[in-house]
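Whiteboard transcription, Tuesday session. T.W. wrote the C-alpha cells on the left side:
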C-alpha cells in the first residue's frame, strides 16, 4: 500500500512537511517553517520566517491574517506551538518567498492557473482532466460515466433548491446531510469518518449500492419538490427527510433480500491515515 498522501506536501518531494488535519474545518494545516526550509534551505528558517512575516504584515498582506498556531511534534519528541497555514495560505506563501529555490513552485502555480483559464474557454479540458484522473485511480469507464451522470443529476436537485429559496452553502449542506441521515443514519462528515476519509469525496469511495441509495434519496427528493413546491429551509427539510426515507425503504428491502448490510467501510484509498500527534516526525532544526 502506498502511504503517501496526495496533499500539498507532494510538491516538496522528499522534504518532510508536518501537517495537522482539522476534522471540523475539513482542512489540512501545514508547518510554515517546514515549507520555508524546503523553499530556501535556510540554516535559520525561523528567523527567515519571522523577517518575512514582519515584511508581509507591514505590506498589509492577507497572508498574515491566515496564520494560525498549532502544536506540532519536533525531533525531540515534544510538541511545540508553531505557525501553520492551510493549503491556500501555503500557496500564497510560496508566491511570497523571494528565493530562487521557490521559482519551480511558482512556475508550477503559474501553469496551474494557466490550465484553469484554458478550461474557461474550453470546458471539455476540465472534463478530460477529471476522466483521466479517475482512470489513473483505477476506476472503470462504466463507473466514471455513472459518476459524471450523478454529478449532473445532483445539479438538477440543487437547481430546484435554489428556485425554492435555498441560497446559503450551509443550507445546501444541511439538506444533503438529511438525505444521508435518512437512509444511512449518518450525516456526510460522520459517513466519511466511518469510511476513514478526510478531504476525499464520499461518493468516490462508495460501493455501488451506496451510490444507488444516495441517488434514490436525491431523485425522490427532487421529484417530491417538483410536485409540492416547498419554499425556504423548513419546508425543504421536510421534503429531504421524506426523500431520504424513500432510500431507507430501498435499503431495508435490499438488506432483507441479500442478508447483508448496504453500508460498507470500504473505500478507494491507496494509503492509510495515521495519527499525526503520534507518528509525524520532524526534520527541521529547532
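and on the right, the sequence the group agreed on:
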Amino acid at each position: 500500500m502506498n502511504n503517501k498522501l496526495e496533499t500539498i506536501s507532494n510538491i516538496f518531494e522528499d522534504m518532510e512537511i508536518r501537517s495537522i488535519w482539522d476534522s471540523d474545518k475539513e482542512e489540512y494545516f501545514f508547518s510554515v517553517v517546514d515549507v520555508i526550509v524546503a523553499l530556501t534551505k535556510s540554516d535559520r528558517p525561523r528567523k527567515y520566517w519571522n523577517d518575512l512575516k514582519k515584511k508581509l504584515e507591514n505590506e498589509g498582506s492577507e497572508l498574515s491574517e491566515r496564520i494560525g498556531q498549532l502544536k506540532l511534534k519536533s525531533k525531540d519528541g515534544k510538541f511545540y506551538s508553531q505557525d501553520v497555514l492551510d493549503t491556500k495560505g501555503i500557496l500564497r506563501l510560496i508566491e511570497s518567498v523571494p528565493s530562487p529555490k521557490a521559482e519551480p513552485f511558482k512556475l508550477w502555480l503559474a501553469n496551474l492557473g494557466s490550465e484553469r483559464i484554458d478550461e474557461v474557454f474550453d470546458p471539455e479540458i476540465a472534463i478530460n482532466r477529471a476522466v483521466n484522473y479517475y482512470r489513473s485511480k483505477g476506476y472503470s469507464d462504466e463507473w466514471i460515466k455513472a459518476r459524471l451522470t450523478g454529478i449532473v443529476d445532483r445539479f438538477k436537485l440543487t437547481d430546484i433548491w435554489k428556485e425554492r429559496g435555498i441560497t446559503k452553502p450551509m443550507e445546501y449542506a444541511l439538506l444533503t446531510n438529511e438525505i444521508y441521515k435518512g437512509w444511512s443514519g449518518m450525516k456526510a462528515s460522520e459517513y466519511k469518518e466511518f469510511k476513514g476519509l478526510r478531504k476525499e469525496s464520499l461518493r468516490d469511495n462508495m460501493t455501488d449500492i451506496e451510490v444507488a441509495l444516495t441517488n434514490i434519496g436525491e431523485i425522490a427528493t427532487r421529484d417530491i419538490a417538483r410536485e409540492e413546491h416547498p419554499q425556504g429551509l423548513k419546508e425543504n427539510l421536510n421534503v429531504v427527510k421524506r426523500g431520504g426515507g424513500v432510500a431507507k425503504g430501498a435499503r431495508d428491502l435490499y438488506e432483507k433480500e441479500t442478508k447483508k448490510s448496504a453500508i460498507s467501510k470500504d473505500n478507494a484509498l491507496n494509503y492509510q491515515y495515521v495519527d499525526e500527534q503520534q507518528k509525524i516526525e520532524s526534520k527541521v532544526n529547532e
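Someone added at the bottom: The radius of gyration is 23 Å.
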